[in-house]
Design a protein that fits this description.
The structure is a single chain. The protein is α/β, with parallel strands linked by helices. It has 2 domains: about 170 residues, 3-Layer(aba) Sandwich (D-Maltodextrin-Binding Protein, domain 2); about 120 residues, 3-Layer(aba) Sandwich (D-Maltodextrin-Binding Protein, domain 2), CATH 3.40.190.100. Helices cover about 40% and strands about 15% of the residues. The radius of gyration is 22 Å and the shape is globular.
C-alpha cells in the first residue's frame, strides 16, 4: 500500500475533524483503534492496563495514515500496534522529525508467506526449504494445474506478489487467486481435515493458527531488506516482513509518566493474540470480554507491569 510522502495540510485537517482539536495531552488517554481485530485487542489490552493505573481511557477510531497526523499533533496519544509496512514513508519521516516517539516493539512477530500442512513434508522431502518445491511440484498439483503445483494466493485485488515471485524464480507452480479470505481459510481447513495437498499464501497473527497446524516455507536470508529490488538481484528471500511498533505522542512521557512506563513494559505475543482473535472472529465474542477474561487468567503476566509502572 502506498501513501503520500508528506503529512499534507489536508491530512492534518482530516485528522483534526476525525479526532478532535487540541495539542495538549489531557485525560483521558486516547488510544488509536484501527480496522482489524488484532489491533482492537491490542488497543483494549492497553486501555485495561492504563485503567489499572487509574487513568480514564478513550478509544478513537483512526485510519492508518490519519492517526499519524493526530499523534504528531497530540490529539491522539497511543498506538500500541503500528504495522510499519502499511504507512509508506510518512511514518519514518514523522519519527525522524521528533513528532512521534517509537517506544519499541509490541512483541508480535508478523509473518507473511506460504504455508503447508505438516503431512506434506512426507510427500515433498526437503521442505521447509523453498528449493524442495522445484522437485515435488506434482505433490501439490490439482487437475487444473497438473503437472504444475497449485498455489493459492491472495484474492486478485490484493495484488500479485506470490505470482510475481513464482515467475521471478521460475517455480513450477500455477498461482490461483483465492476468492476471499473466508474462501481461502475454508479451503485450508477442508484440505487439512482430509489430508489433501495445499500450499497457500497467508499471514499472521491470525486466528487460523490457533486451531490449525501448519508449517512455513523457508526462504534465503536477504542481504538487507527483502523487497522487489532484492528479488531482482536474484535473492529468493520470499516476502518483506513488517515490524510492529508501539508509538506515542511526543509529550506522552511527561504528561503520563506512569502510563509511559506501562507502554514500555506492555508485551503481546502471536500465540496470545491468535487465540483472542479466534474468540472474537469465530466465536462471536466481544473484544473487551475476551481481553478481560485473558487478563483474569494471566495476572502473573501483567500485574508486575502495573507494580513497576506505579513506582
Amino acid at each position: 500500500m502506498t501513501f503520500s510522502k508528506t503529512l499534507k495540510p489536508a491530512l492534518l485537517a482530516s485528522a483534526t475533524i476525525l479526532l478532535g482539536q487540541g495539542t495538549a495531552l489531557a485525560d483521558p488517554i486516547k488510544i488509536a483503534v484501527n480496522e482489524w481485530t488484532g489491533q482492537h485487542i491490542s488497543a483494549h489490552f492497553a486501555g485495561a492496563l492504563f485503567e489499572q493505573l487509574g487513568h480514564e481511557v478513550e478509544y478513537v477510531t483512526a485510519g492508518a495514515v490519519p492517526q499519524l497526523a493526530a499523534i504528531a499533533e497530540g490529539s491522539l496519544h497511543y498506538q500500541p500496534e503500528l504495522w510499519t509496512n502499511n504507512v509508506g514513508d510518512i511514518y519514518p519521516k514523522a519519527v525522524e522529525a521528533g513528532d512521534i516517539i517509537v517506544v519499541g516493539g509490541l512483541g508480535l512477530e508478523p509473518q507473511e508467506g506460504w504455508i503447508y500442512p505438516p503431512y506434506m513434508a512426507e510427500l515433498c522431502p526437503g521442505l521447509p526449504a523453498y528449493e524442495a518445491l522445484y522437485d515435488c511440484a506434482q505433490a501439490f498439483a490439482a487437475a487444473d494445474t497438473f503437472p504444475d503445483g497449485r498455489l493459492i494466493t491472495y484474492p486478485a485485488d490484493w495484488g500479485t506478489r506470490s505470482a510475481d515471485l513464482v515467475d521471478l524464480i521460475d517455480l513450477p507452480f500455477k498461482p490461483v487467486p483465492g476468492g476471499s479470505e473466508g474462501a481461502m481459510l475454508a479451503e485450508l481447513k477442508s484440505a487439512v481435515a482430509a489430508e489433501q495437498p495445499i500450499l497457500m499464501m497467508m499471514w499472521q497473527p491470525h486466528w487460523v493458527f490457533a486451531e490449525t497446524d501448519v508449517n512455513w516455507v523457508e526462504w534465503d536470508t536477504p542481504h538487507g531488506t527483502c523487497d522487489e529490488a532484492s528479488q531482482k538481484r536474484g535473492e529468493a528471500c520470499g516476502f518483506q516482513q513488517a515490524t510492529v511498533d508501539k508509538i506515542v505522542a511526543k509529550d506522552f512521557a511527561t504528561s503520563y509518566p506512569d502510563a509511559m512506563k506501562m507502554v514500555e513494559l506492555m508485551n503481546l505475543t502471536n500465540d496470545v493474540q491468535n487465540v483472542l482473535i479466534l474468540e472474537v472472529d469465530q466465536n462471536g465474542r466481544e473484544v473487551k470480554e475476551v481481553v478481560a477474561e485473558w487478563m483474569g487468567a494471566n495476572e502473573d503476566v501483567w500485574q508486575p507491569w502495573v507494580a513497576a509502572a506505579k513506582q
